[in-house]
UniProtKB/TrEMBL annotation:
The keyword Nucleotide-binding applies. Residues 6-237 form the ABC transporter domain. GO terms for molecular function: ATP binding; ATP hydrolysis activity. It holds the Pfam family ABC_tran. This is NitT/TauT family transport system ATP-binding protein. Keywords: ATP-binding, Nucleotide-binding, Transport. It comes from Actinocrispum wychmicini.
Length: 261
């Protein structure tokens, strides 16, 4: 087995809207090694969420293929865990039963299920809320439950679709610190799409910038910041320079798309 865990080969996706073909993604080639935290940024219309849907197996490429461990993705599977922007928790299930949901669909013993639920509740700071219902939680706590639920199945790839976009600034930064610590603790490969460049630079080891209309890879930037970074890194010259560089790239792609449209 190679070090490559996730690969997109020549991936394109077109949709028909009111009788017209709209090219959401065009000829995407992307390799994600085992254990990487990769962030994808781009303006509206760059196909970020479409790409994540293809990797999750919720959609099918018009051309090309998506592979995990060299096997083509043909639908959803436990090797990929998805956390959408809205956590989509089951309102009638307690926190612990939401976290256990995916495990109930797998061949996992009751003892192993209990062990994993306990571990991921502790990892996400939810142990004391295990018997609470989603309506009793804050927005940040609900997203913690969604993350714990996705990770409890121990997927090879965690897919994050702007999961902190609806949160206030303080809660969002708390969640950024949390997800980075979980990544360090578990070694899970993470593919995250976000419109927030600062978030991408703080979290990612690498940032991919997508062009718009159609979505194409415009740039790939390695994030040369300490592995054990905390929020203070956001005030360093290195961080600010990198953020500005990527923001300029996103802005330039957006303007190019607007001029062409």
């Amino acid at each position: 087995m190679s070090d490559t865990l996730l690969e997109l080969r020549g991936v394109s996706r077109a949709f028909t809207v009111r009788g017209k073909t709209v090219q959401a993604l065009e000829d995407i080639d992307l390799v994600v090694p085992q254990g990487e935290f990769l962030c994808v940024v781009g303006a509206s219309g760059s196909g970020k969420s479409t790409m994540l849907s293809l990797v999750a197996g919720l959609d099918t490429p018009t051309q090309g293929e998506v592979l995990v461990d060299d096997a083509p993705v043909i639908g959803p599977g436990p090797d990929r865990g998805l956390v959408p922007q809205a956590g989509t928790l089951y309102p009638w299930r307690t926190v612990e039963r939401n976290v256990a949901f995916g495990l109930e669909l797998l061949s996992v013993s009751a003892a192993e299920r209990a062990r994993r639920v306990d571990w991921y509740l502790a990892e996400t700071g939810l142990t004391e809320f295990r018997r609470s219902l989603p309506r009793q939680l804050s927005g940040g706590q609900q997203q913690r439950v969604a993350i714990a639920r996705a990770l409890a199945c121990e997927p090879e790839v965690l897919l994050l679709d702007e999961p902190f976009g609806a949160l206030d600034v303080q809660t969002k930064e708390d969640m950024q610190v949390l997800i980075r610590q979980i990544w360090l603790d578990t070694g899970t490969t993470v593919l995250m799409v976000t419109h927030d460049v600062e978030e991408a630079v703080f979290l990612g080891q690498r940032v991919v910038v997508l062009a718009s209309h159609p979505g194409r890879i415009a740039a790939e930037i390695n994030v040369e910041l300490p592995a054990d970074r905390d929020l203070r890194v956001k005030r360093t010259p290195e961080f600010l320079e990198l953020r500005a560089t990527i923001e300029d790239l996103v802005r330039a792609q957006h303007r190019k798309a607007a001029a062409a449209g």
